[in-house]
Specification:
The complex is a heterodimer of chains A (about 230) and B (about 350).
Chain A (H helix, E strand, L loop, with lengths): L1 H34 L8 E11 L5 E10 L1 H8 L16 H11 L6 E5 L2 E3 L9 E6 L2 E14 L3 E6 L6 E5 L6 E4 L6 E5 L6 H8 L19 E6 L2
Parallel strand pairs in A: 1-8, 1-9
Antiparallel strand pairs in A: 1-2, 2-6, 3-4, 3-7, 5-6, 7-11, 10-11
Chain B lengths: L1 H23 L17 H26 L3 H18 L3 H13 L3 H29 L4 H42 L15 H10 L5 H4 L9 H5 L5 H4 L5 H12 L4 H12 L3 H39 L3 H26 L11
Classes of the chains: A alpha+beta (about 230), B mainly alpha (about 350).
Chain lengths: ~230, ~350
């Protein structure tokens, strides 16, 4: 009798716990769906073309980026900007927009994240030196040179271009060489890795841990939407 | 046991909000997270990928509508689907509305109406914004961006206000119920002089009217009258009581005032193509899709709420306490959402750089 009563009581109890758990689940879903990183979908798409600029001594001094926006954002961004000819925006007419772009990009580290010899480094880049916008075939493109505060000579340099929050979808241009090097030492090798690509070399290192720890350049670089620029110099 | 359970709900809700916030905070200048956040996987990841691809095809479809009127139907169909998916993914709207419904013990009908009203307002806000700022005044994207930010701050403040008001009303009810449970025997002796402070009177007014009729006769003395309007007694049947539309309107405004960037982009793009009305139609259809999802989620939330209410009815006393606990937790969540949004810890939407 006592046992039966106990069973009933515990049955009720677990039922109420189940309800509470359901409520908790609901709360969790609300908040994670709302707050979690990368829980938004991008509204802006950027196609990247980049040029790595080297000094005669073989150190890298700057990256020249050309970021082309998708057509919806190109139209949006140029909305209300005065221009003389219909459908044509000159560099001068877009100058103040370029200013705004570059100024507000500072807060996001220009979406450029560097690793030098495997170490993640902040404050590698200075403020853009020359920048402008052009508008061709309804496509707005932001050109800017991102100088390195101090020229860098490294065996391994990695620059990731992406928005960690994924409000902006960055992607290398669909060319054969979306990234080029200018005046780089001959023995330096350039690799680009698109989001979702995992290079075979990195994969085999990961699978075969006894061989050696995964290369620092890939370990923890995690973001699958990162566009990686890798330069190896012996 | 139920008290503990409701505390778990409160703590759990806060922990999940705050821990996620800690991860997200980096992007706003407080220092980036040391590990790169992973993109969403599973259902959420799929949802986001779908939305992104739908969203990308808007531009092409609006262009096509220029040449071929039939393309508009395709665009509207896409807008509806996009709206449904969009609301299922991120967005504070559903969270605030659901928390609000749970905290207020609302009916599912009111939930559906709230969802549709706030989605409609949100679409209207985008149309009015672009219609006036861009189409009539020729404002730039930067100007519209600052206007959206101003609206955003106002709407986040309203969310905090709505949550705080609920929290105040429900929290008082909870405290009063605790008080009642503690001093239950005292009530048999009528008016306890030890309780004769203004606060306790006010609490008792809202929480104890069924237990202490003596207090009811002094209703006019019991602090601000509105506290009573919003915090009826802990008796379950009172919690779902007929609410005026006034308090619902505050929630609708708080959630729907801020136009979403996606709609603004579509509208500006359509405007540039000389097809503003296509953008307007797309925006409203998107709103209907959003409302469908939010209403479904709200109904779910209301269902969970009424289960809790039944539970509370079956065990008077502690059950009521647990119910009040859940409602207080839900209202705290609303305040938390508002604060996180306001301080930028919880990112909502962002266009390039700005």
């Amino acid at each position: 009798m006592v046992k039966a009563a106990h069973n009933i009581a515990s049955g009720r109890l677990s039922a109420s716990w189940a309800r509470v758990a359901r409520c908790l689940l609901l709360c969790t879903w609300f908040s994670t769906g709302t707050v979690g990183p990368a829980s938004a979908h991008p509204h802006v798409w950027v196609t990247i073309k980049s040029e790595l600029v080297y000094a005669p001594d073989g150190s890298i001094t700057a990256i020249r980026h050309a970021w082309a926006f998708d057509d919806m954002f190109s139209v949006y961004a140029t909305q209300g900007i005065e221009h003389k000819t219909n459908g044509v925006f000159t560099r001068e007419e877009l100058a103040s927009l370029a200013d705004t772009n570059v100024t507000s990009l500072k807060e996001y580290d220009y979406f450029n994240y560097a690793r030098i010899d495997g170490k993640r480094r902040k404050d590698v880049f200075g403020d853009p030196t020359d920048y402008w916008l052009d508008y061709k075939d309804s496509v707005l493109t932001l050109h800017f040179t991102l100088p390195l505060k101090a020229p860098v000579r490294a065996q391994s340099l990695e620059v990731d271009v992406y928005d960690p929050e994924f409000f902006i979808d960055f992607a290398f241009a669909d060319d054969e060489s979306p990234v080029t090097m200018t005046n780089a030492p001959l023995q330096c090798a350039l690799t680009t890795v698109r989001p979702n690509d995992v290079p075979a070399a990195a994969m085999s290192q990961r699978l075969n841990k006894s061989f050696q720890p995964p290369s620092e350049a890939f370990a923890g670089m995690g973001s699958r939407f990162a566009n990686k620029i890798l330069v190896k110099c012996p | 046991m139920l008290v503990v359970a409701s505390l778990v709900v409160i703590a759990g809700g806060l922990v999940c909000v705050l821990s996620d916030a800690a991860v997200a905070q980096g992007a706003f200048g407080v220092g980036r997270p040391t590990r790169a956040p992973q993109p969403a996987d599973g259902v959420l990841g799929w949802l986001l990928a779908q939305q992104a691809s739908y969203y990308r095809s808007f531009a092409g479809m609006i262009r096509a509508a220029k040449a071929d009127g039939m393309a508009v139907y395709g665009l509207l169909g896409l807008s509806f689907t996009y709206g449904i998916l969009h609301a299922a993914g991120p967005g504070h709207g559903k969270a605030v509305i659901s928390s609000y419904l749970i905290a207020n013990g609302e009916t599912w009908r009111r939930g559906v109406v709230l969802s549709f009203a706030s989605a409609f307002l949100q679409a209207l806000a985008a149309v009015v914004m672009v219609g006036i700022a861009a189409a009539m005044l020729g404002a730039t994207a930067a100007t519209m961006g600052s206007a959206v930010r101003a609206i955003e701050i106002a709407s986040y403040l309203m969310i905090i206000a709505v949550g705080a008001r609920l929290c105040w009303a429900k929290g008082r009810g909870l405290l009063a119920e605790l008080q009642r449970l503690k001093s239950a025997p005292a009530h048999q002796h009528g008016h306890d002089p030890a309780h004769a402070t203004a606060t306790l009177h006010a609490d008792a007014c809202c929480a104890n009217r069924h237990h202490d009729h003596h207090h009811a006769s002094h209703a006019h003395q019991h602090g601000p009258g509105e506290a009573c309007d919003h915090s009826h007694g802990p008796e379950p049947q009172d919690l779902a009581g007929p609410g005026g539309w006034k308090r619902g309107i505050a929630a609708i405004l708080a959630v729907g005032l801020r136009p979403c960037s996606g709609a603004i982009l579509v509208l500006v793009f359509a405007l540039a193509q000389g097809l503003f009305w296509v953008g307007v139609a797309s925006t409203f259809v998107m709103g209907i899709g959003t409302a469908v999802t939010v209403a479904a989620i709200a109904t779910l939330a209301v269902g969970a709420g009424s289960v809790a209410r039944k539970l509370a009815t079956s065990r008077n006393g502690v059950g009521v306490l647990a119910l009040l606990g859940i409602e207080v937790a839900a209202s705290i969540l609303i305040v938390a959402f508002g604060l996180l949004l306001l301080t930028g810890y919880m990112a909502n939407e962002r266009l390039f750089g700005g």
